[in-house]
Input
Amino acid sequence: AIFIGLLSMFAKHHAHATTAHDFTFMSIDGEPMHMKDFEGKAVLVVNTASFCGFTRQYKGLQALWEKYRDRGLVVLGVPSNDFGAQEPGTEDEIKEFCAVNFAVDFPMTEKQVVSGNNAHPFYLWVAKELGTLSKPRWNFYKILIATDGKAINWFASTTSPSTPKLVKAVEAALPHQ
Output
């Protein structure tokens, strides 16, 4: 009964979410990761997988992070096993894979469900904000969040992190200096 009460309280809280800053993930290291901590920064949220044809995008995501993090960009990796069971590993295995193969040091969450009715509430909120096409339909979907926490754009798996339209959108979303 307590679990049901907490679950409904959690769902109710997120049902009234107005920005990405209203959500919390668990980090890949098991610590709470509050999106409100990214207030004032642009955030590119990407559902990732270690064994996907798009996995090489980790290299481009890391390059984007390195280029723009000092200007206010956060790349946030959200590992998911939703598509093709292409992220079967534990958090430790995912973290090691990303570090060894792509030198990833941008923040990552614990493995999450990102599709369907059981998706993390952040993804349900994005679908309400940006429409049904923004729902991840494969690994490496990218959601761009503005400095004020508003969902402003999404990019399909086939959109590389170095694609001019994505880079231009990221640059436009960065905090003004």
